[in-house]
Amino acid sequence: MVGQSPLGPGGDRPVLLEPFVHQVGGHTSMLSYDEHTVCKPLVWQELSFYESLPLAMRQFTPQYKGIVSVHLKKDSLGNLALLASPGLGQPEGCGRRDSAGDAAVALWHRRRWMSSTEHGTARRSHSQATRACRDSCPGKVLLRTDLQHHSDSLLEDANGNQPERKSYNPWGLHCHRQHLNRISSKHSENKLHQFLLLENVVSKYSFPCILDLKMGTRQHGDDASEEKKARHMRKCEQSTSASLGVRICGMQVYQADTGHFLCKDKYFGRRLSPEGFRQALRQFLCSGNQLRTELLEPIILRLKALLAVIRKQSSYRFYSSSLLIIYDGQEHKDSTAALDHHLPFPKAHGTNPSRIDVRMIDFAHTTFRGSKSDPAPYDGPDHGYIFGLENLIKILQNFSEGK
Prior knowledge:
One of its GO terms (cellular component) is nucleus. This is Kinase. This protein has 11 helices and 14 strands. By secondary structure, it is an alpha+beta fold. It folds into 2 domains: 12-90 and 169-203, no CATH class; 204-331 and 352-402, Inositol polyphosphate kinase (D-amino Acid Aminotransferase, Chain A, domain 1, 2-Layer Sandwich), CATH 3.30.470.160. Strands 1-2-3-7-4-5 form a 6-stranded antiparallel β-barrel. The protein is globular.
């Protein structure tokens, strides 16, 4: 059966896609479909990964929710927007789903509008951030055809410092502008583009602190040109990807003392030495008032669980994929109030008082035996990815031991 996309709240009514205000890394535009769902341009290799996802890995990846058709829309003033059309049929070849997958999407669709009170705090927080994004970047500026760049980029000042942000991370807006510019220059308004629908893994957090880590010692896919291959190899050699098997691709950290988000982008991460990486990782775990030491054990346990799963995935190579580490910047005085009853994975030791999450994302260049791109299969697990995970765990354990 051809993969189907869920319907919006108004049946076939188009859904206006907005920039995802908590995108901290990557170059592909992430957009908000609804409060608990994001979408991104479809890449066949990534779709193949989600449709063949091993059961053991599902707790470490966003839930795949289907495919939706998207088109560009320009109003009388020349403002551009992207509209999702849930009711449109998918083109031939959009991936096959088994009955269990269809049932899962149907169940998600039924639940999606079931409760207006579920995750109320997170919903209000996200709406506030979206409004702040709109206030800071009015629609006519953000969506105008010429896509002018304003001062909300993550450009550094003369001293190499990057600014704090009150309510949103500007990286997502930067990616969105580039995406609109690209598709508006190449395609007509009626051209349909296919997007993946994925779980918004930060929707349950009031002030999501997010670390985007590019994992592994190799970043280019098997299909990369010689020029692209050389470029990615150079980036790895000149960054902590070679020495540690992991580099920072972006982050945002809520600073409780100022009420702002501290944001860093991929250019910041590329310049870090191994010691600089350690300092940045410590900064990610600092609320502005103090180091969030209570986060260390849950994150380490979660990473060890992921490491055990990756070691068993023979033939998989997660080239250019990222790992998100997420926690809530809102510190809870009473640990029982922080228990998260909606996590899609078993809690370590039965509790998760710090509300942390660890998720793998971005699988456009992931390859495995049986992949639809039909590459030459690899044997054994992804040792570059394992190397990065082991070093990450080791650094966090040193923090835990006061080193």
